[in-house]
Structures are given as structure tokens and as C-alpha cells.
Specification:
The chain is mostly helical. About 60% of the residues lie in helices and about 5% in strands. The chain has a two-stranded antiparallel sheet.
Length: about 250
């Protein structure tokens, strides 16, 4: 009985010579351009689904004699360049490099990765890649929007604090000369220094729009600045600190 190990076909590269075997295959060298032959073989392997790094490993390990012989004649560096060039010719920009003793061909562009998988016929992988890529883009967009919102909130809070400081100085300058219709707006700004104008308008009695409450605060500050100029004292902007004037 023949064992399972003996019944398995042997790899041609390690098969011994059998002169009496009528089916023995013999290779003969024929004239031709070695570079063109390598390009054709590599492109065919790429289209069959082999990764460029896998093709380079095949050439280095005698797994495919044609590439192994070509690599020994052309050199490892030239072979790497041919594999990279083949990937680029079918629409993919790739870079070859050695990482921890392992040859790798790296494709970084998202569209190029999708194109390579499509040309290789890896349709399931294309769908999985595009889905993962879309999730990353959505997550990145959400993060950018969140950062943008945070920055806007910080700017709004800083502006509100600065406005509160100016209003406090305005009330100090005007004293009892503050008009009755402007005082409530000023008092609300002091009591709620980080509130938005819309929130201040809702707290006002009667309720005011954002533009209306902002207009009353502006008139209060303008009146105080004119009075400060007449008196020759610092105006409302003198109460602002460098931190309040920072942008970002």
C-alpha cells in the first residue's frame, strides 16, 4: 500500500532526475527579452490575485522557477522594481521596501487599493474595503465637525466673558445715568457671563430676540465709552485682559 506522503505529487523543483521517465520535462533557454518575460509573468500573477509581496517571495524561494532564475540574473533590486512597475501599470501606485527582513510592496492611496482589488477580481474584498473606507471617512468628518463646534463654543464663551467685563466697566462709568431700558440687558450680561445672546434674550422680561438684546448691550457700551471720553477715564475696552482677546 502506498502511504499518503508517497502519493502526494512532489514539487518539481526538488524532484530528482529520472532519465527513464518519458514524461520528464526539460527546459531549454530560448532567445528573448528577460525583462519583458518577467513583466508578463508578474502582471498575470497580479491579475490572478497574488499580492506583489507574495510574488517577490515566490521569486526568492524557487517556488516559481522562471521568476527565481530571472531574479538571480537581474538581481533582487531590479526584480523588486519590475514588480512595483507592473502594479503601477495596471493603475496602482506602489512602493517596494524591506521591513524587518521581509519584502513588502505598499499601496497607500485609497482609490488605488480599490482599483487593485478590482483588477485582481477580489470583489468581496473590494466591497469590504469600500465599506471600511466609508466608515473611516464618516468618522473623520464627524470628528472634524465636533472639533469645529468645540472651537466655536470656546470662541462664543470667550466673547461672552469679554462682553461681561466691558458691561461691568460701563455700569461703573455711567452709574445712575444708565437708561432704564438698557439696564436689564446689562444686568443679565453680568449675571450670566457665559450665556449666549439668544439665552440672554430668553431671560429678559419681556423676551427679546438675539439681535434686540445685542443692540441694547451695544448701545450701553457706546454710551459708556462716550462718557469715559468726556471724563478722560479708561473706557470699557480697558477692562479686557489678553486672555479675553485671544483668538482660536
Amino acid at each position: 500500500m502506498t502511504s499518503s506522503a508517497e502519493s502526494r505529487p512532489r514539487v518539481p523543483t526538488i524532484k530528482g532526475s529520472e532519465p527513464d521517465d518519458p514524461m520528464e520535462l526539460r527546459g531549454e533557454e530560448v532567445p528573448g527579452d528577460l525583462t519583458i518575460m518577467v513583466r508578463c509573468i508578474v502582471e498575470e500573477l497580479l491579475l490572478l490575485g497574488h499580492h506583489p509581496a507574495r510574488i517577490r517571495a515566490m521569486a526568492a524561494s524557487e517556488e516559481l522557477q522562471a521568476l527565481f532564475v530571472a531574479r538571480s540574473r537581474l538581481g533582487a533590486e531590479r526584480m523588486d522594481a519590475l514588480v512595483t512597475d507592473a502594479a503601477r501599470r495596471i493603475g496602482v501606485a506602489a512602493k517596494a521596501r524591506e521591513v524587518r527582513g521581509v519584502d513588502r510592496v505598499v499601496v497607500r492611496d485609497g482609490d488605488a487599493i480599490g482599483a487593485l482589488l478590482t483588477r485582481l477580481g477580489a470583489h468581496d474584498s473590494v466591497l469590504a474595503w469600500e465599506e471600511r473606507r466609508m466608515r473611516r471617512e464618516v468618522r473623520a468628518t464627524a470628528n472634524r465637525l465636533a472639533n469645529f463646534d468645540d472651537a466655536n463654543l470656546r470662541r462664543s464663551a470667550r466673547a461672552a466673558v469679554a462682553a461681561g467685563a466691558r458691561v461691568a466697566r460701563a455700569l461703573e462709568i455711567l452709574g445712575d445715568e444708565i437708561p432704564d431700558h438698557l439696564r436689564p440687558a446689562g444686568d443679565l450680561r453680568l449675571e450670566h457671563k457665559q450665556a449666549s445672546l439668544e439665552e440672554l434674550g430668553q431671560l429678559h422680561d419681556p423676551v427679546l430676540t438675539k439681535d434686540a438684546i445685542a443692540g441694547r448691550i451695544r448701545r450701553l457700551l457706546a454710551m459708556a465709552d462716550r462718557r469715559a471720553e468726556d471724563l478722560g477715564v479708561p473706557d470699557t475696552e480697558a477692562s479686557l485682559t489678553p486672555e479675553m482677546l485671544e483668538e482660536g
